[in-house]
Automatic annotation (TrEMBL):
It comes from Amycolatopsis tolypomycina. Keywords: Glycosidase, Hydrolase, Signal. This is beta-glucosidase. Pfam families: Glyco_hydro_3, Glyco_hydro_3_C. The lineage of its organism: Bacteria, Bacillati, Actinomycetota, Actinomycetes, Pseudonocardiales. Residues 411-613 form the Glycoside hydrolase family 3 C-terminal domain.
Length: 616
């Protein structure tokens, strides 16, 4: 009498008992076959997941829901804990920081993971938010605020595809991107990660997900996207990072939800939960948001990942607790970016299942969501890096696309005819801390979490490089950061000012976003020289420049252009007629924050504003 012909309820009870006891149960029907069903690529993903789940112990399942940072788990430790995912936090890189070393590192995790236990490959994640920005030599694209101004979703999708190819080339198959936040207060340090102050910009550019995930997740050049951060990160009171978003459900739906609806329509494979609170309740523990709204009403079928140690914020006390683990997982969290104390997390989660506080059904649902994406990515068949993709890593062709994105993202805010610059027989004086600094023009999330200043920290061209290269016969270009040497022999001065790199809360400016003392002094000096003045702002958001505006003849917002500062010069010389439009209202004063389209406030330049050259 074949054992399997028991009644379903009895079999289920037996199965559940064995599972809770931590014993793997191998369906007899599969035992007879040489290759387990889940390892059969011709089987349906759903069947492979079902077969694999039935073979998994509670330890296996709890491990799949756990993401550890590379610095806290060796391949052997990761496999011992059966971790489902490893990540690189911002700036967490192998040495040397090269595509080959990344591939060696990630393949080492895969080699151990796929040869122990059930052989479930890990999914490696990294913040590829404007190119594969943790890796030296990657093509660095403009941050989202510039792409919002460019308003060219097709180009954004292409950027996603190039980013995916350069990311997959290093073995990383999960990008924690795109950020689809709708930044409503520019004092927020993550404003530059937003496409715009209204949902339309993020909705339109969410198509980047199709670039990242490709025609099929299983394509060797595809990576899993992660729409983030769900939900309301850009709406906190005062623009405080990880603060409290105090708005009605209707406002939440109207302003912050549409980009995630678009992301789901584009097939986003994962969603990252936001640090902020909504009316005093941390998103990471909010079942209505994660389960009822995201998974239920929006029908999100991928998996939900926490942000960095985000569950630890639920009770406001330092150190995550069993209560927080229970609340987050029962709220619908599928994977937890712990990221360091993963042994404690694994033990805590297992205990919460064994004591009945977290139902096995929730664990199985989380695992089904995670494993489905791993099968769809083809990780079981191709766990190792496709190193052939490294052939065009950071290539000239990829940089050419970056330069086009820079051109299109430039917004011309003022021009009395001083622009475009004459290429020939000109005498151009270039000044400012951001004219010749690759680090400043790339901004945060570049090689390191916070980014860094430095003339040549990444390969590419500075704005000064572009101005020099574009100069024609009889033209002299002089550069001095502080403007020393400016005199009436020059026909035009170009001052490149703005912000230096930052990320997340370190970029919060409660007092508003203003020019620093160096920039103010420079503009004062140049104004005093009487030389016609062009100002270029390199910044993660609008900067209060009202006081200086009367003495500025031409004003261009360059945002954070990334690798190809020469794209800014293309606009200054008129090789590209500027067409960028503000995706953020430019304030008349820092004290106007928050200021957004339709709120009745009068900014210096409105949302959607941008000039072009009158063609002679
Ligand atoms: C950070 C960010 C998130 C990022 C994650 C991993 O704190 O909030 O955007 O993806 O941690 O680096």
């Amino acid at each position: 009498m074949p054992l399997l012909r028991t009644t379903r309820s009895l079999r289920t009870t037996v199965l559940a008992g064995l599972l809770l006891a931590g014993t793997a149960v191998v369906p007899l029907a599969s035992a007879a076959t040489a290759t387990p069903l889940y390892k059969n690529p011709s089987a349906s993903v759903a069947d492979r997941v079902t077969d694999l789940l039935a073979r998994m112990t509670l330890d296996d399942k709890v491990g799949q829901m756990t993401q550890g940072e590379r610095g806290s788990a060796t391949p052997a430790q990761a496999a011992a804990a059966r971790l489902g995912s490893i990540l690189s936090g911002g700036g967490s890189t192998p040495t040397p920081n090269t595509p080959g070393a990344w591939a060696d590192m990630i393949d080492a995790y895969q080699r151990v993971a796929t040869t122990t236990g059930l052989g479930i490959p890990i999914l490696y994640g990294s913040d590829a938010v404007h190119g594969h920005n943790n890796v030296a030599g990657a093509t660095i694209f403009p941050h989202n605020i510039g792409l919002g101004a460019a308003n060219d979703p097709q180009l954004t999708q292409r950027i996603g595809a190039i980013t995916a190819r350069e990311t997959a080339a290093t073995g990383v198959k999960w990008a924690f991107a795109p950020c689809l936040c709708v930044a409503r207060d520019d004092r927020w340090g993550r404003t530059y990660e937003s496409f715009g102050e209204v949902p339309d910009n993020a909705v339109a550019n969410s198509v980047v997900i199709k670039g990242l995930q490709g025609a099929a997740l299983g394509d060797t050049t595809s990576v899993l996207a992660s729409a983030k951060h769900f939900i309301g990160d850009g709406g906190t009171t005062g623009g405080v990072d990880q603060g409290n978003t105090q708005i009605t459900l209707d406002e939440l739906r109207r302003i912050h939800l549409p980009p995630f609806q678009a992301a789901i329509a584009h097939g986003a494979g994962s969603v990252m939960i936001s640090f902020n609170s909504w009316n005093g309740v941390k998103d990471h523990g909010n079942k209505f948001l994660i389960t009822d709204l995201l998974k239920g009403e929006l029908g999100f079928s991928g998996f939900v990942v926490s942000d960095w140690n985000g569950i630890d914020q639920i009770d406001g006390q330092t150190g995550f607790t069993a209560v927080e683990v229970k609340q987050a997982v029962n709220a619908g969290m599928d994977m937890v970016m712990v990221p360091y104390d993963y042994q404690k997390f694994v033990a805590t989660l297992k205990a919460e299942v064994l004591n009945g506080d977290i139902p096995m059904a929730r664990i199985d649902d989380a695992n089904r969501r995670i494993l489905t994406k791993k099968f769809e990515l083809g990780l079981f068949e191709r766990p190792y890096t496709d190193r052939s993709l490294q052939s065009d890593f950071g290539s000239a062709a990829n940089h050419a696309v970056a330069r086009q994105a820079v051109r299109e993202s430039q917004v011309l805010l003022k021009n009395d005819g001083v622009l475009p610059l004459a290429k020939q027989d000109n005498r151009i004086f270039v000044a400012g801390k951001n004219a010749n600094d690759m680090g400043n023009q790339a901004g945060g999330w570049t090689l390191t979490w916070q980014g860094q200043s430095g003339t040549r920290v990444i390969p590419g061209t500075t704005i000064l490089d572009g101005i020099k290269a574009g100069a024609g016969k009889g033209t002299v270009v002089t550069y001095d950061r502080a403007g020393s040497g400016i005199n009436s022999s020059y026909k035009v001065a170009v001052a490149v000012v703005g912000e230096t790199p930052y990320a997340e809360g370190q970029g919060d400016r409660p007092g508003g976003v203003v020019l620093d003392a160096e920039d103010v002094a420079l503009l004062t000096k140049l104004k005093a020289s009487g030389v016609p003045l062009v100002v270029v702002t390199v910044s993660g958001r609008p900067v209060d420049i009202s006081a200086q505006l009367p003495s500025i003849r031409g004003l261009v917002a360059a945002w954070l252009p990334g690798s190809e500062g020469a794209g800014v010069a293309d606009v200054l010389y008129g090789d590209h007629n500027p067409a960028g439009k503000l995706s953020f209202t430019w304030p008349r004063s820092a004290s106007q924050q928050p200021i957004n389209a339709g709120d009745g406030k009068q900014g210096l330049f409105p949302y959607g504003y941008g000039l072009s050259y009158r063609r002679r």
